[in-house]
Structure formats: C-alpha cells, structure tokens
Specification:
22% strand, 10-stranded mixed sheet, 595 residues, TIM Barrel, binds zinc ion, alpha/beta, 2 domains, 9-stranded mixed sheet, 33% helix, Alkaline Phosphatase, subunit A
C-alpha cells in the first residue's frame, strides 16, 4: 500500500529522536570542494573554513604557498559569494560562520584580513555572519586590539588567565587525535568514549560551542559526535554529512511498541498430519531487514522468530525485475506471475482464480484482514480480476460479488452500504466479529485510510485476527484467512524508521494470534511472508537495551531482494527452500491435498 503523504510528512517532522540534539556542519578544507562556499552553504553547512595565506599583499585561499592559485583569494572565494548570497536573499538569512584558518604569519595576515573586511561593511555589520580566526593566531593578550566583529577559535580546555578573553572566543576546537584513535568504524572503546564525553562537558561548561577536528568522517562517526553533543560536525563531505544527519530524525527510533513473544508448543509443527485451515499473513514490504529491525527493537525476539520452517521467495513479476504489490499479491493469491499493476489476472489479462475462490469451491470459508483499504492491491488480489489496481470501481464490484465470509480493513460509507446490500452484516466493533452468528461479516477499521500505529491505531490488527479466527472457526468448515500488515510498506516508501519498526512489531502481534490458534487446533498451518521488500532497508546501528534502531535506505521504492517465508504447523516443512512467490499458492493447495 502507499498512501497519506501529508500525514506522514508531518509526522516525520515531529518525531523526536532521543535527547534533543542540535548540530552544525563545518565544511573543513572548504576550498578543496569543487565549488567552494556555495556547495557547503547550499547543503546547510553553518560553518565554512577558509584557509588563508598572505603573499604579496594578497590573501590567497590555500594550505600553503606552493599551492597558491592566482585569483583564488578570500574575496573571490568567500567574501564576494557571501555578499551575493545576502544581496539575492539566498539561504533565508541562515547564519554562517567563516572560520578563517591562518596558515601564514598571524599578525600581518590578520591586519590584512581586517583591512579587506572593512571593504565589506554589509558583511561585518551583519550579526548573522561571524568571522572567527583559527590556525595561526596572535597572542591572547592582543585579541582585544582587533575589531569587535573578529572572534577567535580557542584551542584549549584550560581557562584563560584573563577571563575577559572569553568575550573574544566564538568556539572551542580540539584535535580529536589527542583523545582517541577511533577510525569511525564500529564503536569507540568505552574509555575513549568516556574521555571524549568529559572533554565535551568541560568545553560546554565554559558556555562555548565545541568542535573536534581531525575526526573520522563517516556516518557512524557523525552520529556518534552528534550523540555526544559536539556542536560543529567537522567534515570534508558536507553534502553527504547533511543528507545523513538531516534525516536522522526519521531514521532513528526508540521503540515504544511491544509484541509479547509467544513460544509455540511445536506439537503439530512439521508433522505430516492433516492441514485443515490456512492462515496466510503478508507483511507488505516486510523484508529481512524490516523483520530484523522489529525483532531487535522488541528486545531481540518476535513470535515470528520462533518459527522453524523458513524459506526465501523470489519476487520478480511477469513484466518487471522489481514487483509491485499487485503483481506480487496476484502471484501469492493465484499461483500466476503477472504484470505489475494487475490484480487477479494473468499477464495477458485473463482472470485467474484466487485461493479464496478455489477453496470456496472445495467448501472452505475465507476471510481477508488488512490495515490497508479493503480494495488495496494485496487484499484485492484475493478476490478481484482487473488489469489495473487503480480500477477501484471494478475492484469494488468484484468484492460485492465475492464469496468472502469475513472482511476487515479500511473502507468507506459507500463500500459499507454496497457490501450490506450484497449480503454482508456490518459489524461495528471488532469484538462483535467474534460472537457474530452471521454468515458473512465485514468490519471497517476506518472510513478512509486506516491509521498507523504511530497515529494511534492500537492493536486492531491482532484483535481482528483473533476475532476473525473465532468467527471462521465457529462455522465448522475449513477456512483460509489472509492477514495483511500493510503499512510496513508505506513507511518504507517514506523512509521512516519509526513507522517500519512499529508496524512490524504490530504485525507480529497478529502473527501471535495466528500461532496461538494453530496450537489450539493442531490442524492449522500458519504461513508468514512478504510480497516484496521496500526501500532497500538496512540497520547500520541500534541498541538492544534501549530498543533504538537506526535505519538507512537505498531507495523510496520496492527492491528485488528475496523475502523470507516462515511456516508453522503441520506440513510447514513444505515451505522451506528458495522458490518463486507464485509457488506459495501451489504449495498451499498441495498441503491441502487439492493439487
Ligand atoms: Zn509499496
């Protein structure tokens, strides 16, 4: 499924991660960028380094005399661009610090810098632009001789003898190598982490922002420094660093959801005994990394990770390397690989019978439960026959004609009316499903898009699963139930880790109800899989104790990686191995002795 753009955007902006972290990006050795100043500023850097060297009365931007390039001066590379940025109102007045790193003799160079800056009154009068001198600096006692717009970088943790010097200090910077030899891969050693933490606390006790230089320049390092409270993140790659850090709030989640792990009794598991009922749970977009993230956030275990029969599915659709939910749902539901966007038809557009239809002819009852709209691509693959998933009118009319006994998901008033007219009793509460004696029951989780866990849905999916199983079981007929955790996919599309993890954990609560039912009956086979992976999800870092997950993404679309399939109950061993999504249909008919 794929929906509610606006709500998710708003959520993304308001979800907090951990303690309030704020950071600024410092573009280290900025003149080595392909386009100095502009690329760093455009990517949100708040501090930009200008290495300068005085030669023949010019302030060249360079590390040393031998690398001087004519025309590359502090004026051409920095002061003129800043003036232009101001004149054109670019950057919306976002403050910028020019950290001038003096590479030549300090007194003459600084005198020259002051005389150059006097030619840019707009810059020196602007409170949002600060000029901070680093590198070769004059003696501290001389700091007061320079104009008020000149501030200094302080490179010590010892308080100056004259406390007034703090008035001329803009920030404290120290060499990271003095405290740690960490290369930015994996974790700091605990003693080094403690040392760096105490250094930062000491610097902050002076009331000054803090920067470390000679730091490792990696994703892991940037996050470690932000978590430690370093104010200026030193980087040679401002674009990559900003892209990484600015998305952390959507990519880091401190889990608040729980799935109480149910350990099955395994009495019927992998036994070659009769299978009467099938429960197929589909986590939309629920790849191995998504499952891992919900497992790790849930303390290292899920009910799902108790399963012993495990396989992998190849997900390619008939016409595309990377499937959508319609083609994948159709493969699972009908045993036929089809084109993307198609539901319940083959690649030529001919209707193919789905599990609910095939099994209905054999005396089975069937039900669909989803956190998507009931006409979404995955559920509709189990009752509709349309060449395009967006043909909601056609899909709805197929739904009215279906033989389903149970339907739970997002709906609308018109759907409700039509379903009622076509023989469904509309049950207002989820609990009402459990005790309903009606032949066919529909229950709507909402009259529009179903809210997510983060939006306050609560355990509605697990409750519907439990109640739906009781309803179907009471009919004294074998049954097929499909349960979809639909919004794992939505949050994958939005590259939103809190959503992926919380929906994954919620999906496990539904799995728990299915497994408990399987244990209670002994003749129910539970199959859990996904239609495809979404977002190229990965989990670079996390914390088992705090339930913290940092996720990362390679795309906002589906990917072609294999997805896991888990089975529990009699003949679950038939689902081991590596095979295509459409084989699941044939395996289900096989274990029911219908094929
Ligand atoms: Zn999707």
């Amino acid at each position: 499924m794929f929906k509610h753009h606006f709500l998710l955007l708003v959520l993304g902006l308001t979800i907090q991660f951990g303690t309030a972290q704020s950071y600024k990006i410092h573009s280290h050795n900025d003149y080595l960028q392909e386009v100095p100043f502009w690329s760093a500023y455009a990517n949100g850097a708040s501090s930009i380094e200008a290495d300068i060297f005085l030669k023949d009365g010019n302030l060249y931007v360079t590390h040393g005399e031998s690398e001087i390039l004519e025309d590359r001066t502090i004026q051409s590379l920095y002061l003129q661009p800043i003036q232009k940025m101001k004149a054109l109102q670019l950057g919306k007045g976002r403050p910028v610090q020019l950290l001038v790193d003096i590479k030549s003799e300090p007194y003459a160079t600084l005198d020259k810098l002051v005389s150059v800056l006097e030619e840019y009154p707009d810059i020196i009068k602007d409170k949002s632009i600060s000029v901070v001198i680093s590198g070769n600096r004059p003696k501290m006692v001389d700091y007061f001789k320079y104009p008020s717009y000149i501030k200094f970088d302080y490179q010590s943790l010892e308080a100056p003898k004259n406390e007034k010097v703090w008035d001329k200090v803009a920030l404290i910077s120290l060499n990271f190598k003095n405290f740690s030899s960490w290369n930015g891969k994996g974790r700091f050693t605990a003693p080094e982490h403690a040392k760096v933490k105490s250094v930062i606390e000491k610097a902050h006790a002076y009331g000054k922002p803090f920067r470390l230089w000679a730091t490792p320049d990696s994703k892991t390092a940037w996050k470690a420094f932000v978590d430690l409270g370093v104010d200026f993140i030193n980087t040679d790659v401002p674009y990559a660093s900003a892209s990484y850090l600015n998305t952390l709030k959507d990519r880091v989640y401190f889990n608040k959801e729980t799935s109480t792990v149910y350990v099955p009794n395994y009495i019927s598991d992998q036994k070659d005994t009769e299978v009467r009922n099938i429960i197929l749970l589909i986590g939309d977009g629920n790849g191995l990394a998504q499952i891992s993230s919900s497992m790790l956030a849930n303390g290292g275990n899920l009910t799902l990770t108790q399963f012993k029969s495990i396989g992998l599915l190849k997900t390619q659709s008939a016409d595309d390397f990377t499937t959508d939910s319609a083609a994948a749902g159709t493969a699972l539901a009908t045993g036929t690989k089809t084109n993307n966007r198609a539901v319940g038809v083959d690649a030529l557009g001919n209707p193919v019978k789905s599990l609910t239809e095939v099994l209905n002819e054999k005396g089975f009852r069937s039900g669909l439960i989803t956190t998507d709209n009931v006409t979404g691509a995955t559920p509709s693959s189990f009752y509709a026959h349309r060449t395009d998933r967006s043909d909601i009118a056609g899909i709805s009319s197929d739904l009215y004609k279906s033989k389903l006994s149970l339907l739970v998901g997002g709906g609308s008033e018109s759907l409700e009316t039509e379903l009622h007219e076509n023989g469904f009793a509309i049950e207002k509460s989820s609990n009402g499903i459990k005790t309903s004696t009606e032949e066919r029951v529909a229950h709507f989780l909402s009259q529009a898009d179903v809210p997510s866990i983060l939006e306050g849905r609560g355990p509605a999916l697990a409750e519907a699963t439990k109640n739906g199983l009781a309803f179907l079981n009471a009919k004294k007929k074998p049954f097929f139930l499909m349960v979809e955790g639909a919004q794992i996919d939505s949050y994958g599309h939005y590259n939103n880790v809190p959503g992926i993890v919380s929906e994954g954990i919620d999906f496990d609560r539904a799995i728990t109800e299915a497994v408990k039912f399987a244990d209670a009956t002994g003749n129910t086979l539970v199959i859990v899989t996904a239609d495809h992976e979404t977002s190229g999800f990965s989990i670079p870092q996390g914390n088992l104790e705090t339930g913290m997950i940092e996720g990362d993404f390679t795309t906002d679309d589906h990917t072609a990686v294999m997805v896991p399939i888990f089975a529990y109950g009699p003949k679950s061993q038939e689902f081991q191995g590596v095979y295509d999504t459409n084989s699941v249909f044939h395996k289900i008919l096989g274990v029911l002795n219908l094929e």
